Amino acid sequence: MAKRSGKRKRSSKTAQTKIISLVCGLLVIAAIVIFGGAELEGTGSSNPLASQITDEHAFSVHVIDIGQGDAILLSKDDTYALIDAGETMSPSDRESRTAIFAYLDSLDIDRLEFLLITHQDYDHIGSAKDVLSTYDVGTFYDNGVEHTSATYEKLMTYISEENVTYSIVREGDQIESPWTDVTIEIISPPQDLIMTGSSPDINENSIVLNITYGEVSFILAGDAGEKAEEYIISTGTSIDAEILKAGHHGSSGSSTDAFLEAVSPNVIVMSVGADNDYGHPHLETLTRFAQYTENIYRTDLDGDVIITTDGSEYSVITENEHIAENILVSGNGVSV
C-alpha cells in the first residue's frame, strides 16, 4: 500500500503540499496499518511531510477499482454514500463486476444514505439496481435525463415498483448531506441541460459535484466533457479544489486546460480499466495533468484509491504500490 499526504492550498493557489509515500503488502481499509517506504515531496511543497490522517471523524473518498467504470464511496463516522455504481463492459474482467459489493462488504456496510448516478451509461449504472436491492438505500439521485437502454429502464422500473425515494438534481441543487460538516453541491448539468442537436448529451450532462469538508474540496466530474466544463466556468462558481476525480476516465475530450486552471488540483485521480478499448487515459490528458501536479493516480495501476481528510490536511492511500514513473503512460503505451 502506498500513502501520500497533503495540506489545504492557500488562497493564492500555491500548493501547500505534504506528501509521504509508504509501501505495505496488503490494503486494509479503516484499520491500523504499518507503513514503511520512501518519502517524496509533491509539486511546490516546502513544508515538512505530514503524518497519516488519523482523525476518527475524518472524511474519506474511496475511488473503487471496478475496471473501466466508476464507483466512488463517501464515508465518515460509519455513515456511507455511493456515487455511481458502474460495471465494466469487458466480459473477461469478471472480478471487477463484483468489486463494488466486495468493497462495501469489506467495510460491513448495510446502509447507504444515498446512491447518486452521474449519468446513464452502463459503466456508471450497471450495478445500480443490484446495489438498491442489496443495501438499504435512503435516496436515489440522478439528472433526470431520459435514456432508452434496457439497463436504465429496468433500474427506473425497480425504483418505481419498490418505492425507492427518487430525486432529480442539477446545477444549483444541494444533496442533503448525511454529515453536518460536509457540503455536497451540484455544479452541473444546467437546469435546461446541454443539448446535442435536439437531445440531451449523455456525457456532457453528467452530474458534477463539489464536495467540501472544512478547507478541503473535491470535484467529482463524472463523464463531463468540454461543453460541461465550459458551462461550469461560465457560471462564475469557484471550483478551486485540492482533489479532482477527472472526467471521463482520462479522455482527451475532458479536463481541458481552462478547467484544470480553474480547479488547480493538487491531486488528480482517474478511474480507468487496464487495457481498455478506448486508449484511456489519453496522452493529451496526461500531458495536461502533468503541468499541474505530480500527484496523479489511476485505478488500473494503483487499484483502489482513498483520499482522507480531517478538513485541513489530506492523505492518499493506494491498494497497490504507487509507482510514479508508470502513471504518465497513455492507454496506448505512449509516455508523456
TrEMBL record:
<dbReference type="InterPro" id="IPR035681">
    <property type="entry name" value="ComA-like_MBL"/>
</dbReference>
<dbReference type="Pfam" id="PF00753">
    <property type="entry name" value="Lactamase_B"/>
</dbReference>
<dbReference type="InterPro" id="IPR001279">
    <property type="entry name" value="Metallo-B-lactamas"/>
</dbReference>
<dbReference type="InterPro" id="IPR052159">
    <property type="entry name" value="Competence_DNA_uptake"/>
</dbReference>
<protein>
    <submittedName>
        <fullName>Beta-lactamase domain protein</fullName>
    </submittedName>
</protein>
<keyword id="KW-0812">Transmembrane</keyword>
<feature type="domain" description="Metallo-beta-lactamase">
    <location>
        <begin position="68"/>
        <end position="272"/>
    </location>
</feature>
<feature type="transmembrane region" description="Helical">
    <location>
        <begin position="20"/>
        <end position="38"/>
    </location>
</feature>
<dbReference type="InterPro" id="IPR036866">
    <property type="entry name" value="RibonucZ/Hydroxyglut_hydro"/>
</dbReference>
<keyword id="KW-1133">Transmembrane helix</keyword>
<keyword id="KW-0472">Membrane</keyword>
